[in-house]
């Protein structure tokens, strides 16, 4: 008797590592630090002890390069999901600087098809992992008696951030970032992308 598993309603995380990450990040880091200098107070959102910019990177020409890459990646993902042709992708992006001791609490992003983060600078693994919480809410009523968790039985899944890697996931997938226990800032650009019909 063959028992065949089939995954239903999978939760995806898409990632890609930029080939030119070293030069790209060196330049991006400079612009990130300048942005913080212009607004040292930043905003308080999901960040605990960290600095976060306003959601304005999409309006700043000096961040055009990373914004364009985010949009291109989301466009490609949309294509793979059979999005209708002619959609425009509306972006909001912001900068997070998490010094040692800082973290991002568990949250999700409403009203966007894709959310994600691109890591400019960090010291792994001490900088803390990004973690995702099982979105199958009713599954929290009972845990499975397993010695080793699998994708099916896991309640949380951690991914170790990597400099130069972008992580994209559905906005509804709850996530957070662990405390930065390294001696360096964890610096990343986060974003929301909504696919909307042209002209809307
Ligand atoms: Fe987030």
Features:
single chain, 200 residues, alpha+beta, Jelly Rolls, 6-stranded antiparallel β-sheet, 5-stranded antiparallel β-sheet, binds fe (ii) ion
What's a quick, concise take on this entry?
The protein is α+β, with helices and mostly antiparallel strands.
What can you see in these coordinates?
By secondary structure, the chain is of the alpha+beta class. It has a single domain (14-138, 148-197), classed as Sandwich (Jelly Rolls), CATH 2.60.120. The protein has helices at 21-38, 64-80, and strands at residues 14-17, 47-48, 51-52, 87-98, 103-107, 114-121, 130-133, 156-159, 165-170, 175-177, 186-197. The strands form two sheets. It has a six-stranded antiparallel β-sheet with strand order 1-9-6-11-4-3. A five-stranded antiparallel β-sheet has the order 2-5-10-7-8, with no helix packed on it. The protein starts with 13 loop residues before the first strand and ends with a strand. The model has no long low-confidence stretch (mean pLDDT 95). It binds fe (ii) ion (FE2).
SSE topology sketch:
Layout: E1 14-17, H1 21-38, E2 47-48, E3 51-52, H2 64-80, E4 87-98, E5 103-107, E6 114-121, E7 130-133, E8 156-159, E9 165-170, E10 175-177, E11 186-197
Antiparallel strand pairs: 1-9, 2-5, 3-4, 4-11, 5-10, 6-9, 6-11, 7-8, 7-10
The structure holds fe (ii) ion.
């Amino acid at each position: 008797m063959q028992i065949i598993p089939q995954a239903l309603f999978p939760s995806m995380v898409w990632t890609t590592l930029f080939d030119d990450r070293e030069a790209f990040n060196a330049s991006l880091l400079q612009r990130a630090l300048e942005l913080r200098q212009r607004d040292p107070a930043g905003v308080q959102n999901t960040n605990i002890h960290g600095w976060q910019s306003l959601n304005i990177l999409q309006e700043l020409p000096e961040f055009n390069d990373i914004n364009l890459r985010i949009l291109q990646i989301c466009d490609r993902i949309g294509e793979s999901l059979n999005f209708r042709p002619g959609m425009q992708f509306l972006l909001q992006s912001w900068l997070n600087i998490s010094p040692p001791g800082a973290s991002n609490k568990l949250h999700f992003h409403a009203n966007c098809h894709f959310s994600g983060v691109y890591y400019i600078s960090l010291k792994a693994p001490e900088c803390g992992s990004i973690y995702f919480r099982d979105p199958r809410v009713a599954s929290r009523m009972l845990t499975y008696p397993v010695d080793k968790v699998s994708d099916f039985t896991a309640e949380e899944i951690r991914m170790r951030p990597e400099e130069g890697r972008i992580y994209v996931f559905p906005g509804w997938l709850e996530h957070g970032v662990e405390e930065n226990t390294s001696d360096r800032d964890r610096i990343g650009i986060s974003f929301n992308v909504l696919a909307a019909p042209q002209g809307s």
